[in-house]
Amino acid sequence: MNVLVTGGSGRIGRYVVRELVQAGHEVTSADVVYERMPGAGALQVDLTEAGQVYQVLARSRASAVVHLAAWAQSGRVPDTRTFGDNVQGTFNLFQACADLGVRRVVFASTHHVYGVAASPPLYVPIDEAHPLRPADAYALSKVVGERVADYFVAHYGLDILCFRFQGVRSPSQLDAEVERAVREPSERPHMLWTRLDARDAAAFCRLAVEAEKVEPGPYNVAGRRIVLEEDSVELVRRYFGDQVEIREGLAGWLSPLSCARAETAFGYRPQYDWSVSQRYPEG
User: Fold this and answer.
1) Is residue 271 in some structural domain?
2) Per-residue pLDDT averaged across 240-256, rounded?
3) Cis, bond preceding 189 (omega within 30 deg of 0)
4) Per DSSP, what are the bridge partners of residue 254?
5) What torsion do the CA atoms of 58, 62, 66, 72 make, to the nearest 10 degrees?
6) Dist. CA 166–CA 114, nearest whole Å
7) Which of 233, 229, 249 is nearest to 241 (CA)?
8) Which of 102, 125, 163, 275 could form a disulfide with 97 if both were Cys (CB 3.0 to 4.6 A apart)?
């Protein structure tokens, strides 16, 4: 299968490119930075320019797309550009896919659409039905991107899967991330004390591209467990308070972000469950 990966030089993208190449797919990486990776083609492209998007899809002969390209958080560029570029690039890509006959698209969204960086979740485990409460321009751009996906699914028949990634880090970053969570569990509770190895994120993208039949819509993609060796319910109570509803399914070290839908749809189960006592350096 020919697969186009936008943002192929990014934190997740380079692992997605490698995963797809190793699985035998013909892969083209499209990014604002030109970088060739082993076994893959590369094109430098600005997704906010519609003509470039059509050309890169045609040149790659893509039959599926993994769309990761975006300003990945607020604050790197002005919010007007974070929101504008992310939304414009996503619309351009979906329109080009519709016009050129590309039906399968994986779209990188984020767990920040749930708004836990600004206020506690309404309930845990957080599933895809949790209300969306974007708290910054980046999260807002992803909410709009998901609505754009709904439009193209309904009106053009695309299969667009919106992956609400949470805490994705490369293996080289995860040791420090785990230690930081241990030292200061109260510092960033919106991260839900959960991290996801980029290799697992890449494997999930491959499964979604290869799946014969899929249900469009949102999917949480996160680690199955927290990195601390503490009870998840106790952590939620301690740092979010009693106003959070504890629903069935959260126990032991399980993550407060539910990936049950992804597990059911694709058989997704992370291979690299990082924790205080378990590390998986990249070999």
Assistant:
1) no
2) 94
3) no
4) 225
5) -20
6) 11
7) 233
8) 102
Distance between CA atoms of 183 and 185, rounded to whole angstroms? 6
What tokens does 25 get?
A: 């797919």
Considering only CA atoms, give the Rg of the chain.
18
Kindly state whether residue 47 falls inside one of the protein's structural domains. Answer: yes
State pLDDT tens for residues 60-75.
Answer: 999 999 999 999 887 7
pTM: 0.96
The three-class DSSP label of residue 179 is helix
Query: How far apart, in whole angstroms, are the C-alpha atoms of residue 141 and residue 88?
Result: 10
Q: pLDDT, tens digit, for every residue of 24-57?
A: 999 999 999 999 999 999 999 999 999 999 999 9
Distance CA 119, CA 239 (A): 11
The SS3 of residue 245 is strand
Within-domain flag for 280:
no
Give a yes or no: residue 190 inside a domain: yes
At 43, which CATH number? 3.40.50.720
pLDDT band with cut points at 50, 70 and 90 for residue 172: very high
Q: How far is CA 183 from CA 70, 193, 256, in A?
A: 31, 12, 20
* Beta partners for residue 42, in sequence order: 29
Residue ranges making up the domain that contains 51: 2-266
How many angstroms separate the CA atoms of 23 and 85, rounded? 31
